[in-house]
Amino acid sequence: MNFKNEFMLNFFKDKTAAAGLILFALFVILSLHPSLFAYQNPYELTQLYLQNSFKPPSHAFWLGTDEQGRDIYSAILYGLRTSLYVGVVSTVLSVIAGVFLGLVSGYYGGWIDTLIMRIADIQLSFPAILIALIIMALWGTGINKIIFAITIVSWVYYARTVRSSILLEKEKEYVQSVQALGMGSFPILFTEILPNVVSPIIVLATVRVAYAIILETTLSFLGVGVPVTEPSLGTLISNGYQVLFSGYWWGSVFPGVVLMLLIISINLMGDRLREVLNPKGERV
């Protein structure tokens, strides 16, 4: 049995993880082409009708409407696309930056290691939300800017994880053998060492996607993330919260439930990946 088949078999042994994967796949499918599943484009002005404002859940509007007559169900589908896009792209950028700096820090050591790790320590001494708020205050709101802010907040976790793995790997015989053969530092790092430390990176990245989505939602809820004119689970929850105590509960409750299910599905996958890829139970 090859690695791929063995991995899939082990992963799907856990029914909750399989359920998480199916739920996450459903969210991804819905978010890739929301126009195929939505009643309307809730951010297209020609499709808004104020006479439909604050309609409760019904057969016509499954999850109700908001103050502008937007269908909440349709808005959630478009909001999912933005939240997943921000979460995945910011995680990919964080992985690239963090893995590179972690490789360099752990392999070369010396002042490079000291500099990178002290920067990481200083950054970790501040709450991530505070750093993100400062960046957004300086740069303004927007999807690309919030991706940048989350990337800056998140790279340190990958750098520290990779560095700790590199410190162990570089002392092993296979690394010393290729060093003796005259292989350069970067080929050693990226062709010999990196493939052997990729498992904890995958596990960490899966979990951090959920964190990135939560951070984007929090910033958007506070009004400094995705602009209110753009679809996002955070902006939907924020808009619904403003009228929550006026009896229009569906505007924030349904987007909040979808966010909760999205995060749970990612965490279920992350927990199972940790068990499959890291069976010895080392903490990632």
Verbal overview:
There is one protein chain. The chain is 70% helix and 0% strand. The chain has 284 residues and is mainly α. It has one domain: MetI-like fold. The radius of gyration is 22 Å and the shape is elongated. The model has no long low-confidence stretch (mean pLDDT 86).
Topology:
Elements: H1 3-11, H2 15-32, H3 34-37, H4 72-108, H5 110-124, H6 128-139, H7 143-169, H8 173-180, H9 185-193, H10 198-221, H11 233-241, H12 250-277
Quick synopsis:
The protein has 284 residues and is mostly helical. It has one domain: MetI-like (MetI-like fold), CATH 1.10.3720.10. The chain contains twelve helices and no strands.
- Arithmetic mean pLDDT: 86
Rg on CA atoms, Å: 22 Å
At the fold tier of CATH, the topology name is: MetI-like fold
Shape: elongated
Low-confidence sequence ranges: none
CATH class: Mainly Alpha
Q: What CATH architecture would you give?
A: Orthogonal Bundle
Q: Helix amount, in percent?
A: over 70%
Can you tell me the CATH superfamily?
Answer: MetI-like
Major sheet details: none
Give the number of helices. Answer: 12
Percent strand equals under 5%
In total, how many domains does the architecture comprise? 1
> What would you call the quaternary organization?
single chain
What separation lies between the terminal Cα atoms? 27 Å
**SSE class:** mainly alpha
What is the string of helix and strand elements? HHHHHHHHHHHH
Give a count of the beta strands, DSSP E runs of length 2 or more.
0
Summary tags:
12 helices, 284 residues, mainly alpha
